Amino acid sequence: MPTVDALAAGLGSGDNPLHTAPWPPDLGTRSRERRRPCAPANMGIRGPASYGDAALRTTAEAVVVGAGIMGCAIAHALAERGMTEVVVLERDAIGGGSTADGAGGVRQQFSTETNVRLATHSVRVWETFGERFGTEIGLRQQGYLFLLTDPAEEPVFRANLALQQGLGVPSRWVEPAEIRELNPHVAMDDVRGGTFCPEDGWCDPSAATMGYAQAARRLGVAIEEGTPVTGIQVDGGRVSGVRTPRGDVATPRVIVCAGPQSRAVGALAGVELPVDPSRRMSFVTEPFAALPPTLPMTIEFASGLYFHPESRGFLFGMANRDEPVGFDKTVDEGWMATTVEALVARVPAFGEANILRGWAGFYEVTPDDNPLLGHVDDPEGLFVAAGFSGHGFMQGPAVGACLAELVCDGAARTVDISPFRPSRFAEGAPAQEHNVI
Ligand SMILES: Cc1cc2nc3c(=O)[nH]c(=O)nc-3n(C[C@H](O)[C@H](O)[C@H](O)COP(=O)(O)OP(=O)(O)OC[C@H]3O[C@@H](n4cnc5c(N)ncnc54)[C@H](O)[C@@H]3O)c2cc1C
Fold it and tell me: 355: which of 55, 133, 145, 346 is 20 to 30 A away, CA to CA?
């Protein structure tokens, strides 16, 4: 097998699994297997073989479009609030969109108060998810360690720390000496310092999504896979229903949770939702012993390079800031080589690793790297929870609670999400997030 070094030098030979079989069914690593979207047979959830067997409900109190982490968490929260007719329409399979392709990172180190609050509320749910939902999500709170190499970043990160600490987050500044203790394998030559939060970590997005989906179904929510929404009906300025190939569903409320496809779904109601897909690639190494599985998620902030232990190997990736908008899901081998080079430069021990596999997914990006959360002004009854710009999975629990409060009570209580209202761009009031990986 080629080593990471060999891949960086020339992308190795044909025996690199990344070249021969990007999605092999027999992957060897347990955790990525668990993250494969929707395993209907062992989850007790009807799978593709029976799509369309049961009639689609013709009316609903609310229709949720998309069964990723957001659609499932929101549907569950609505049902918990007592809504008895909630229908989730998913064009493909539960958790098979961006949620399946993410790194599962969970952090509280953000630069905007709204994100810190959404993250803080969500972490408490992730910590107790197993007891509450009966689904193990494999939460590993080994911390997020940001490495800062640009002197201009220090005051920004110190200001962010003050915000986070003021909201109860145990994040802190770390000098180079402490960074060496937290991750002794990092090449420190240009590292000036960093930040660390021991409560941050990662877990399994597919397990979490299935946990929400199953809990929602137990509360009576209908989750219909293989059922794309192809139209949104509006009468007299109000949402009145949705159209699908299996029939129409009359409803006064539609909640768009369509991830990177949200722009297209909004257009069905004549609404412009500024959410665009941006390809991101992730890679997993084969098991190797040169680095301990206890390391934190480590991020070189300037480049967007990150890695964390995954199963008995490591997961890593790096943001390509020149990636064009689009739905191309192929793995860019040139970018893989660039990523590997940066990884080995930052942690030379990765030179001993083999890449097991890689895949591409989509960040669902908005102009200020924050989601559209709330109702649109027109038509009435259209809500949005989309455009999480690469940090959506971790916020699922808080977003679920907030959207249910907004829909049922007219305002969110758990977190004030008004800074992320969909109308903010038209109002000239963007809410830029600085800590985007
Ligand atoms: C490489 C990568 C790494 C990431 N790492 C992290 C991380 O570490 N931490 C983190 O918090 N987040 C991370 N993210 C981001 C995170 O995965 C997303 O923000 C989150 O999963 C978005 O969830 P969602 O439910 O909004 O969208 P999705 O999971 O995309 O769900 C939307 C669903 O809508 C469905 N849909 C679309 N159109 C229609 C239609 N017309 N009708 C019916 N259904 C429709 C889709 O099929 C899909 O299932 C990462 C993303 C990527 C790509």
Answer: 145
